[in-house]
């Protein structure tokens, strides 16, 4: 098999990886995996932190929360998966300056600009991952006009890499500033109210880094393919 077909095959693999990993990432990842979400065990909370489900105080179970909602589960999600028993949840704390904050009410009624932009950039990257696949199929079966398709593929891959980078950056900033968003300091939230730290998980950082590296290598492969189909004229065309 010629080298250019191997390159298309590798780009295919990277595109399917990006689509598959993003599907897993979106459906199971950022906030719903026990290791990646803001999660707490109710019975371990101090007296200053009150959890209500259906307007009744509860002392057992698990609460997960993100920038969109709060979720209550009676069973340990690490053993049984996240089984949502209720989304009518209140997570109430009273600060030293006598402010009463319902974290769940805050995330339900106020949208974070960072998180909105993060989702927009991720959506762009997802769509571009999908668009690249039919272009690769055309490259396999077309005998003419390949140069225009290669340029188009390079353009989409570059925009995808940029969108993914900004998406990852906004997610890191958004997770780090979650308690600022709901009106608490990190020190107060963690030390006084027993809430989890909101730093980015190591696995999530690994995923982000791997995804960016694969997208960058895909761009390099496209340049190599461009050189193979253009031969000596490649450098003049660039």
Automatic annotation (TrEMBL):
It comes from the Eukaryota. Keywords: Membrane, Signal, Transmembrane, Transmembrane helix. Residues 1-22 form the signal peptide. The chain crosses the membrane at residues 121-142, 148-171, 204-228. This is PKD_channel domain-containing protein. The lineage of its organism: Eukaryota, Metazoa, Ecdysozoa, Nematoda, Chromadorea.
